[in-house]
Structures are given as C-alpha cells and as structure tokens.
Specification:
Radius of gyration: 29 Å
Structural class: alpha/beta
Strand content: 25-35%
Low-confidence stretches: 159-166, 272-279
Largest sheet: 9 strands, mixed
Number of strands: 26
Length: 509
C-alpha cells in the first residue's frame, strides 16, 4: 500500500484519523500570528475559512487553535521522532512555553534554530527583523540526528572564526584537534537566504521556503524510507524535498491550490521511467473525478465502492452468482460501473440474491428489510419501476444506490485553447500567445502549462500556477506539443493538448 499522500482537508480532522506513533519527522510552518489579511495567499474557499477561524479571537485563541493540532502531532509521532515548528516573533514565546514545553516536555527541547536571511528596506527606529525561529523537539531522549549528512564547509556561512578550520591544540590541553574533512556541524543559526522574485525555485507562493532549508532539516532528522509529515503544506517544498530524498511523506492543506501545486511540483521533478517514487502517491480530495471512477479497473472499483458503502467485497474475482460483496449483516451487494442500469440487471440480481443465501433472503423479506443492494452511477426508468413493483407486489426490497449518494462526485473541467502568433525575432524564434478558457461548476482555480509536452514523460509544467489562463512562449522551427491543465475549486483537473508546427508560420495541427 502506498503511504505517500496529498490530502485536502482540515489537518486536525486528518490527524485525528491517523494511527498513533507512525511518523518519523514533522515539519510545520503554520500561519504566523501577524493578524494580517496577507496570510490569505491562495484565496480559495478552504484557506479563507481557516483564516476566519484562526482570527475569531486574539493570541489566546490562536494558541488554543495551534495547540490542539500539535497535540495530535505528538500522538502520531514515533517515540524516536522529531518535530520542527517554524514561527516568527509574533508568537514564538507563547508557542514554546504554552504548546511545545507542555506537550513535548521541557526535557525534550533540542534547539531553538534561528533562520537568518537578508531583505530589502529597514525601519528607522528599530533593528531590521531578518530572522524566523524554528523550534526543534524530540518526543523522547532517543532521536535521529544524522551529523555527517548535514556538515557544511568551515566558514561556509561567512561568519565563522578564522580558527574554525585550523589544526592545533586547544588552550590548556596537549591534545591536537583536527577538523572533520566532511566539514562542521552547523550552529543553531542558519544563514540561508530567502528566494528572490526571479529565483527558479519560485512557484508564486509568497511565503515559500527554500529547498536548502528543508533539505537540512529532513537530512538531519530522518533516514531514507522514513515518513515525513507536513500538516501545513502550503507551497509543497517539504513534500518535494522529502520525495527527492527518498522519504515517504504525507502533506495536508485546506487549500485546493496548495494540494494541486504540490502535486504539479512532484510531476515537475520526477522521471516516469527512472524515478521509483514517481506517481507512487494517493490524492485525497473532497470530490471524486467522475471520469476517473468510470475508467478505473473494474475489480478495484468494486472493492473500493463497497467499502465506502460499509460492506466487504469478495476477496478475489470468482464465480459469485453476480454478487460482488456483502454488507456487515450478510446482505449481498452488486456493483455496476455504468450509467442507466436497466431492469434486466434487477431481474438477474434478484435471482442471484435468492441463490446466494436463500434463508437470509426469505428472512429479510419477512422482516421487510433490504434483500440486496445494487450500486451504479445511475439507473433507468425501467429499473426504478421494477424495484418499486417488487416492493409493492411481492414485499421484496432491493435498494438501488447511485455512486454519488455514497461519495461526492463531480465532473472535471472542460478546456478550450486559442493560439495567436505575435512576432518573430532575427533568429527565427516565434513568439506565440496562448489563451485557455476552462469551465467547471465548481469554478476554475488556476492553470498550469507544459510547452514541450510528451505523453511518455508526463506533464512537466514550466508554469505551475497561472490564474489568468494567458501565456506567451517562444518556439524555434519544428513541431511542438503544448499542454495546459485546468484545476477547479474541487481539486479536479483536466488536460488539453495541441500541436503546433512552426516554420515560416505558426500552424495549429
């Protein structure tokens, strides 16, 4: 079973449903207590709701909101696990005293890491604030700390003493100390600069953390194959780095855009042929893609939907009289992965249910209980009328259950692309403008673009998040495949591809 998961939802509810002592490392970068509207970054419904909940009161309310979640994180963390909580001056003192010391214990405090960075502008009557705080706690006195994996060159951060790299004797000792050839273990202040506006790592997420910061944390406090959890996923840096370093991971966020942008970052950095972690994750949204469910492997869909209904599917495909599983009381269930299931299916199922367990069937009829369940995407008028007739005339109850009454189902967006040639430079590169227009009942959140799309390599976006649906790109002579994804407010997506032939002109094929 794949443990890598991207989950759209309230992290408190997700954490409560997780098994205890299963996570090796937790990094969280919760919204800071700055009481500013700029904390609403993505702007989608889930994020706005969470923002309003957080600011229903003052600092006491904020600490209570965060403390409940950190309590669940302590429960799911393994005894030898570690937590790194990222915060700033607005609430760091409250967080340490009221949350971390109380939940993890003062004895399990390991470090107060000061993350230093540069920035523009300076106050006239104060020192410039140019650092965040990262509290590191263990769950016990036994914890992972991989010293050699995080060593840095002496004076690597530009502020080291001259004698950091010198061999020699320590004052008052005859023992000769030599520097480790791999470098030194970093101090508890880290100078790792923030991402500038033009940094290639940038994905359009204002509070995005640099990969280098997460690499140091994940390398020091976990090993390959360990499980890393980020319950405030945001722009997805923790997940992208954990995946690249061979860790298992779980990412949670209440924002559709956060979840989908993280998924696109995973696509961007993986090779479908060589990366063993590519596609090895599950995506948990509020709604399920109708087309994906319809095209799912039949036996896999049967097993899954019966479980969602509350029953148990047959252990394997076999001659089962047309019965695919049963409810906890033994009542048979049949699944049809199709629309407009007709009366013939009801007739066949009635016969199968009688053969499946004749005594149980007769008992259910006598007690006016359901004799069976048929699950499908929809039912024809004939099927509905026959079920009504059986109940009225023969006292036989068969429940017709549509898939969308078991799970929320929605259809993915539809997309159209317009192409407009703009110009050609001296080298023959032609600048082309693309305009994507997508429609969805849920509303469109953003677009993502791959200008050299290959079906074999998968969708690897050059532009991860585009809220306008309009892009310009230059193409040399040749044939180019362009793909655009549209993501709606339910997290469902669709992809549209076009082929351009660039020669003397730009021709859409």
């Amino acid at each position: 079973m794949c443990i890598n998961r991207l989950i759209l939802g309230d992290n408190l509810e997700v954490l409560k449903a997780m098994e205890g002592e299963t996570v090796d490392l937790i990094y969280l970068d919760p919204p800071f207590f700055s009481n500013r509207d700029y904390e609403v970054i993505w702007g989608d419904e889930g994020e706005v709701r969470s923002f309003q909940d957080r600011w229903a009161g003052g600092i006491e309310h904020y600490i209570a909101w965060l403390k409940e979640r950190v309590g669940e994180m302590h429960r799911v963390l393994k005894p030898a696990g570690s937590i790194f909580l990222h915060c700033d001056w607005h609430a760091n003192a409250y967080i340490r005293v009221e949350i971390l010391d109380r939940i993890f214990g003062k004895n399990n405090f390991r470090n107060e890491i000061v993350w230093c960075y540069r920035g523009g502008g300076a106050p006239k009557r104060d020192f410039g604030r140019r650092h965040d705080t990262i509290f590191r706690y263990g769950k016990s006195q036994q914890y992972t700390f991989n010293t050699d994996s995080i060593r840095i060159p002496y004076q690597a951060e530009g502020i080291g003493r001259k004698d950091d790299a010198m061999w020699g004797k320590h004052r008052g000792s005859d023992k000769v100390y030599k520097p480790n050839p791999l470098g030194k273990i970093p101090e508890d202040w880290w100078f790792i600069n923030t991402l500038n506006a033009n940094d290639p790592e940038r994905i359009g997420y204002p509070t995005q953390k640099p990969r280098e910061l997460l690499e140091r944390i994940i390398k020091c406090a976990s090993n390959e194959g360990d499980l890393v959890l980020d319950p405030f996923m945001g722009g997805g840096t923790t997940i992208a780095v954990a995946d690249k370093l061979g860790r298992k991971w779980i990412g949670i966020d209440h924002s559709v855009q956060a979840v989908k942008v993280t998924e696109l970052r995973l696509h961007q950095q993986t090779d479908l042929f060589t990366d063993i972690y590519a596609n090895s994750y599950t995506l948990q949204l509020h709604k399920y893609d109708y087309d994906m469910l319809r095209s799912k492997d039949a036996f896999e869909f049967e097993s899954w939907i019966i479980g969602q209904l509350g029953g148990t599917s047959n252990a394997k495909q076999r001659s089962d009289f047309g019965i695919d599983g049963a409810m906890c009381d033994g009542t048979p269930v049949q699944v049809k992965r199709s629309e407009s299931v007709g009366r013939n299916v009801v007739d066949s199922f009635l016969s199968a249910a009688q053969r499946y367990d004749k005594k149980a069937f007769e008992k259910n009829v006598a007690e006016q209980k359901p004799t069976g369940y048929i699950v499908a995407f929809s039912f024809s008028k004939g099927a509905v009328e026959e079920v009504a007739r059986l109940k009225l005339k023969e006292g036989i109850i068969i429940n017709l259950v549509s898939v969308d009454t078991i799970i929320p189902v929605s259809k993915k967006p539809c997309i159209k692309i317009e192409v407009n040639e703009l110009s050609r430079d001296a080298s023959g590169v032609r600048e082309v403008e693309f305009t994507a227009a997508a429609k969805s009942d849920a509303g469109i959140e953003f677009y993502s673009w791959d200008f050299e799309y290959s079906e074999s390599k998968g969708f690897k976006p050059l532009v991860i998040r585009d809220i306008t649906g309009r892009q310009q790109h230059g193409f040399k002579a040749g044939v180019h495949h362009i793909a655009v994804k549209a993501v709606d407010n339910d997290g469902l997506e669709n992809i549209e591809t076009i082929k351009l032939k660039v020669n003397g002109t730009v021709e859409r094929q």
